[in-house]
Amino acid sequence: MPLAANLQADGAKCPQVRSNFYSPAPYPEDEAYRQHVVQRLLERSLPLEPLQTAVDAAADLFRVRYAAMTLLDEARQWLPARRGLDVDFTSRAVAFCGHTIHADAPMIVKDARVDERFAGNPLVLGAAEIRSYVGIRLMVSGAAVGALCVLNDAPLPEVPSERIDQLRELASGVVRAIEDRLKVQVGSSGASDASSIVRLAYRGNDNV
Prior knowledge:
Layout: H1 3-13, H2 31-42, H3 48-62, E1 66-72, E2 76-83, E3 89-91, H4 97-100, E4 107-109, H5 122-125, E5 132-140, E6 143-152, H6 161-186, H7 194-206
Antiparallel strand pairs: 1-2, 1-6, 2-3, 4-5, 5-6
């Protein structure tokens, strides 16, 4: 049976789900500041080796085809480190991670075909055939800049809490690597706190 027919059949079993619909994530309340932090990261040299190590470890931990560390700018989802995905970025409108950045709790999607936020998402309907997702948001300089996530082309069984804790640890390692790099890059200014540097710069722009 074609994929579209399968999705229609699943929708018939779950009437509340429309297989041709998906819901782009709303922007967070602190989107302006969050964008400022993201742009500073995109303009700098990220520590790609530890980021890729974390992504590979996450994929191995969940035994999935796809994993990524993402950054969300105004219109795009950038993938500085990834496994199984052959693109540098996607539209932010289709990004599962756009939902993840709204809460500290992990976002777990066991079957995207029966989740109204994602059933009609091009990442679900397209060649990647994303079916499941687990993501942990990345907090850098007080802003949720993106996520460390794993995705698969099969529905997700129950996830042990220990595995979520391990994914959190990997995400924490990603944040530490990024913030350590920021501290090194702003060190010449005589400041040691990258978060303070970013916040002061942002407030200064507000007064221009």
